[in-house]
Amino acid sequence: MVVGATLSRRESSKPINYSPNPFLIGDALDGLVREIDRGMMRVIFRGAQTIHTMRYAVYMIGSSVNMSTREQPPGFTLRPMRDEDLAAVGAVERAAYAHPWSDEIFRDCLRVGYCCWVGEMDQDIVAHGIMSVAVGECHIFNLCVHPRCQRRGLGRALLRHLLSLALKRKADTAFLEVRASNSGARALYASEGFCEIGTRRKYYPAGKGREDATVLARELRGLDATGCV
Questions:
Q1: Could you tell me the residue range of the domain that residue 210 belongs to?
Q2: pLDDT 10s digits, 28-53
Q3: Assigned domain for 6 exists
Q4: 154: which residues sit within 8 A by CB, 6+ positions away?
């Protein structure tokens, strides 16, 4: 991903040519939240003595990062995504990714009630984020900024906004996945308190073959309403 990452749930039996989530999205979305939020911690933390032990490790690592900057980039505003935004959202997605989500995937995310937000500059949509919150955990599926607007703090502002929403909905842990090669996104997430907890081999479609995904997490305990510690 260019400035962010997505995370996903289960692979479909038939590969789908889009990124960052090579999964069957359509009708399958309705049951995915339960699968993610009740099972993913146990899958990722397999081998740990207890889930509590691993949650504490994520909290200790994430809480050690200084995230005191709270100013939103000048002129950047955030609002919930609407159906009429999908054409503009799709244009940003295609500009940013070699394997973009389709408009139908975004429409499905709206339909099932995920947290879907857009970021605007001068009333033009230049960023979007998709997140689910359930059973005490949030999962950021897509965090995207148009290439011409990157490195201005927009991705960080959008990420913090999503985390603040998750906190208000009583989530205590955040998860996401990022391409192993996406050093820019990984640096952003590390600076925001995320730590690496696993790898999913050959998870994303790539130019040649497939690419690994790095699974990241952070404890939301200690965040304030702005998404900062």
A1: 27-219
A2: 343 443 333 334 433 333 333 333 43
A3: no
A4: 3, 73, 76, 119, 121, 126, 127, 145
Average pLDDT over all residues of the chain: 77
In a domain? residue 54 = yes
Residue 116 · residue 165 · CB < 8 Å? no
Q: Write down the pTM of the prediction.
A: 0.71
**End-to-end Cα, the chain, rounded Å:** 25
Exactly one of 177, 192, 211, 219 is catalytic; name it. 177
Query: In whole angstroms, what is the distance from residue 82 CA to residue 156 CA?
Result: 22
Q: Is residue 201 part of a domain?
A: yes
> For the segment 45-94, what is each residue's pLDDT rounded down to a tens digit?
333 333 343 444 444 444 434 333 356 789 999 999 999 999 999 999 99
Give the chain's largest Cα–Cα span. 51
In a domain, 205, yes or no: yes
Reading the block at residue 206, the tokens are 């790539």
| CATH number for position 156 | 3.40.630.30
Query: Catalytic residue at 189?
Result: yes
Q: What is the rounded distance in angstroms from the CA atom of residue 145 to the CA atom of residue 92?
A: 7
Helix (H, G, I), strand (E, B) or coil at 216: strand
Given 59, 97, 114, 189, the catalytic residue: 189
Confidence of residue 207 (pLDDT cuts 50, 70, 90): confident
pLDDT tens track for 130-167:
999 999 999 999 999 999 999 999 999 999 999 999 99
Structural domain total, the chain: 1
Q: How far is CA 218 from CA 18, 181, 196, 227, in A?
A: 27, 20, 9, 12
